[in-house]
Amino acid sequence: MGGVVAVAVAPVVVGVAAAGSGSANRAASRRDVRFLLAKLVLPPGATRLVAEPPGDHDYLKGNGPLEGDAARSLAHSWWEVAGTPADVLAYVRAHPPAGGTLFGTGTAGNVRTGTSAVSVYYQWPAVGDVLGYRELAVTATALPDGETGIVAEAQSDWIVPRPTSERIPSSTGEIDITSGAPGQPPEESLSVTDPSQVRKIVSLIDALPVAQPIIYGCPPQIDPRLVTMTFRPATGGPTLAVLTYSAFRPWSGPGGGCNPVELTIGGRHQDPLIGGDFLDTIGRLLGRSLT
Q1: For residue range 137-188, what is the model confidence (pLDDT) as tens digits?
Q2: How do 262-265 and 268-269 pair as beta strands?
Q3: How far apart are CA 27 and CA 29, in angstroms?
Q4: In terms of C-beta distances under 8 Å and separation of at least 24 residues, what long-range contacts does 63-70 make, across chains too?
Q5: How much is the average pLDDT of 114-129?
Q6: What φ, ψ does residue 265 adopt, rounded to 5°?
Q7: φ, ψ (nearest 5 deg) of residue 84
Q8: Measured between alpha carbons, how far is 127 from 99 in angstroms, rounded to an integer?
Q9: For 99, left (φ over 0), alpha (ψ -120 to 50), or beta?
Q10: 137, β-bridge pairs
Q11: How far is CA 78 from CA 22, 118, 142, in A?
Q12: Cβ(94)–Cβ(110) under 8 Å?
């Protein structure tokens, strides 16, 4: 086939300079969805439409307004082109969007109407501490006029940075740790007063990333253990901060959005954090398991 048709949208430039600023990351995400749409290459003769084409049986509705739920930007565009939906997506796969990786295909159909649609999905890598999940979905369906209607949907999640104020007070001199079944008396209890160990634990927690406002698919919590860390300036001193974390089997699995680290500093609840394997790291430092 002769030449190609690409969406005429200016590319975006994003980088780590935007990190640390929620508003800057959001702006980068808004630019990025247009950048992803610009990567789509369609068969020659594709015509861009200003609205969802009639007769598409709702297969091409698009992903809503520019900004969707969570820390996410969305954008979509429609086209119409000659050929069958299968031919159109075969062309897209033969001319993949630059930098994208094919990660799936899909089909949808209605036995009552005899209609169907086919889709292909591409992903791009995250961009430092600025952009997370990035996707371009292309869906095609046959239209009543004999042509194929297309919708391309771009998604770009921005990284919500951890507030610089969310830090354990440097005056911490003791960490009291308890562990046990939720709602029951603690099964384990210890106090950490060694200055080197205290500094390492505080530094570890201060380095944890903030949990992103996205939807997580969570497994059942089996044999949960509630770990509580109370930070004080010295033995018997006032509470500076409190960390709580619900660990559950398998213990070796890294903590994620399903069991974030909850942190209160000076009586104020902070943004939840992603703990990863922080309990294992602390356990190795102290020479004992915390679960």
Answers
A1: 999 999 999 999 999 999 999 988 888 889 999 999 999 999 998 888 888 8
A2: antiparallel
A3: 5
A4: 63/153, 63/155, 66/30, 66/33, 67/30, 68/155, 70/157, 70/212, 70/213, 70/214, 70/215
A5: 94
A6: -125, 125
A7: -85, 160
A8: 13
A9: left
A10: 121, 153
A11: 30, 15, 13
A12: no
Question: What's residue 181's pLDDT?
Answer: 87
> 14-45: per-residue pLDDT in tens?
223 333 458 899 999 999 999 999 999 999 99
For residue 158, which of 138, 177, 132, 182 has the smallest C-alpha distance? 132
76 CB-contact burial (10 Å; exposed 0-12 / middle 13-18 / buried 19+): buried
Number of other residues whose CB lies within 10 A of the CB of residue 102 = 13
103: Cβ contacts below 8 Å, ≥ 6 apart: 121, 122, 123
Alpha-carbon gap, residue 128 to 209, rounded angstroms = 13
Burial-class residue 227 by CB neighbours within 10 Å (0-12, 13-18, 19+): buried
Q: Is the pLDDT of residue 5 over 80?
A: no
DSSP state letters, 186-197: -SEEEEE--HHH
Specify burial of residue 24 (Cβ count, 10 A radius: 0-12, 13-18, 19+): middle
Residues 6+ apart with CB under 8 A from 32: 12, 14, 73, 127, 131, 134, 154, 156
Q: 245: closest CA among 265, 266, 219, 227? A: 227
Instruction: Quote the tokens at residue 97.
Output: 């969007």
Q: What is the pLDDT of residues 196-211, one digit of tens each?
A: 999 999 999 999 988 8
Per-residue confidence (pLDDT) for residue 289, from 0 to 100: 87
For residue 61, give the nearest of 73, 76, 82 by alpha carbon.
Answer: 76
Cβ atoms 181, 225 nearer than 8 A: yes
If you search the block for the tokens 């001319």, which residue do you land on?
95
pTM score, two decimals? 0.71
